[in-house]
């Protein structure tokens, strides 16, 4: 998967309105001047890095929630966290001026509020299992209806911008859009690495985790905040990108042949899926690039059908 990440990154730097050879890409990355070199460094490189970093963040967020719920359906886009982050961003766009800082803050607040709602409604069964997933689906449906109402009530220009942004897109991202989100994701991933051992212990069961000294409620709260932070940060920049967080952890688990949901394979798989989907989005209707969310939704929908069929057969 690491080799696939590197290969897709190089392909993303080569592909554009004009094809650049790998030698030209390495020359540009080495600091060479000239028009095509500036295009590679200033236009293509931010988009490629956004696909890799955001894909890894979504993969990790999905792994966190699937570990907590011990359910392959327990991902941020299924249990309403993406919809909550989108609600916060919509409020920032329609009520406030919609600056980058307001979008980031609104997305985080919306995601945290959605997570709190799911948690409080799930208290009877704890933050795990099918109960949380079902409640999350209900919260997701409610927030989706709220988001549609906000868009319908907005002014036409604002509504068009909000609907376009809701598809999830890496079109037009530049370095100014990525510096703060990359820093936030890096901090969240460092915190996650520090708690990764406890996360894997918790995935083995509450009794096993508690017997090894893991404070489950504290760990769950920390993991929820990290997962929401990753999801909301991506949403604030690129909009809600569906199904990467759902599919990446399960694909990574199967590739690693792990009994639980390993974090590193999930991150690498998420990076591969998002970067691959973005390349497809650029190629399919070239020279007009599609939003990457359209491709990820199509791929993720097929994956979701397969996963549901498999779960039904198992039960």
From TrEMBL:
<keyword id="KW-0813">Transport</keyword>
<feature type="transmembrane region" description="Helical">
    <location>
        <begin position="223"/>
        <end position="248"/>
    </location>
</feature>
<dbReference type="GO" id="GO:0005886">
    <property type="term" value="C:plasma membrane"/>
</dbReference>
<keyword id="KW-1133">Transmembrane helix</keyword>
<keyword id="KW-1003">Cell membrane</keyword>
<keyword id="KW-0812">Transmembrane</keyword>
<comment type="similarity">
    <text>Belongs to the binding-protein-dependent transport system permease family. FecCD subfamily.</text>
</comment>
<feature type="transmembrane region" description="Helical">
    <location>
        <begin position="260"/>
        <end position="284"/>
    </location>
</feature>
<feature type="transmembrane region" description="Helical">
    <location>
        <begin position="78"/>
        <end position="97"/>
    </location>
</feature>
<dbReference type="Pfam" id="PF01032">
    <property type="entry name" value="FecCD"/>
</dbReference>
<dbReference type="GO" id="GO:0033214">
    <property type="term" value="P:siderophore-iron import into cell"/>
</dbReference>
<protein>
    <submittedName>
        <fullName>Iron-enterobactin ABC transporter permease</fullName>
    </submittedName>
</protein>
<dbReference type="InterPro" id="IPR000522">
    <property type="entry name" value="ABC_transptr_permease_BtuC"/>
</dbReference>
<dbReference type="InterPro" id="IPR037294">
    <property type="entry name" value="ABC_BtuC-like"/>
</dbReference>
<feature type="transmembrane region" description="Helical">
    <location>
        <begin position="182"/>
        <end position="203"/>
    </location>
</feature>
<dbReference type="GO" id="GO:0022857">
    <property type="term" value="F:transmembrane transporter activity"/>
</dbReference>
<feature type="transmembrane region" description="Helical">
    <location>
        <begin position="290"/>
        <end position="309"/>
    </location>
</feature>
<keyword id="KW-0472">Membrane</keyword>
<feature type="transmembrane region" description="Helical">
    <location>
        <begin position="130"/>
        <end position="152"/>
    </location>
</feature>
<feature type="transmembrane region" description="Helical">
    <location>
        <begin position="46"/>
        <end position="66"/>
    </location>
</feature>
<feature type="transmembrane region" description="Helical">
    <location>
        <begin position="103"/>
        <end position="123"/>
    </location>
</feature>
